[in-house]
Specification:
The protein has helices at 11-18, 35-49, 70-82, 95-111, and strands spanning 24-29, 58-63, 86-89. By secondary structure, the protein is an alpha/beta fold. A 3-stranded parallel β-sheet has the order 1-2-3, with helices on both faces.
């Protein structure tokens, strides 16, 4: 949420809670007209809040891909990939997308040293 670092919504309580994580699975609504803007708002809140949130490893999960504009989705994936981000697409109406993500999670976590 915009201004979370200033206490809006769950604000700093939520940000403090996710400080404890080793990796962030950042879910972004792919059906949004501006998913990259949405992403950047959250990243700005992480930076303003500090405490290492902005440097945590993250995996981008574009959700609601069943209702996303295909052209925008393709551009969004390319933009995140260009930033060096790991990107997955997910639709609750596509069991294969869920299974693919579930299957890949252990290796993703191992690759970013989150599994002991």
């Amino acid at each position: 949420i915009k201004l979370a670092s200033e206490g809006k919504g769950l604000g700093s309580k939520f940000l403090k809670h996710i400080e404890k994580t080793r990796v962030l699975f950042h879910c972004i609504d792919a059906s949004s007209t501006h998913p990259l803007v949405d992403y950047n708002i959250i990243r700005k809140e992480f930076a303003v809040y500090g405490n290492g949130l902005e440097t945590k490893p993250e995996i981008i999960i574009l959700t609601k891909t069943d209702s996303a504009d295909a052209s925008l989705l393709k551009k969004t994936i390319a933009a995140f990939s260009k930033k060096g981000k790991t990107v997955f697409t997910l639709s609750m109406y596509n069991p294969e997308s869920i299974a693919a993500l579930k299957k890949k999670i252990p290796s993703l976590l191992k690759n970013i040293n989150c599994l002991r």
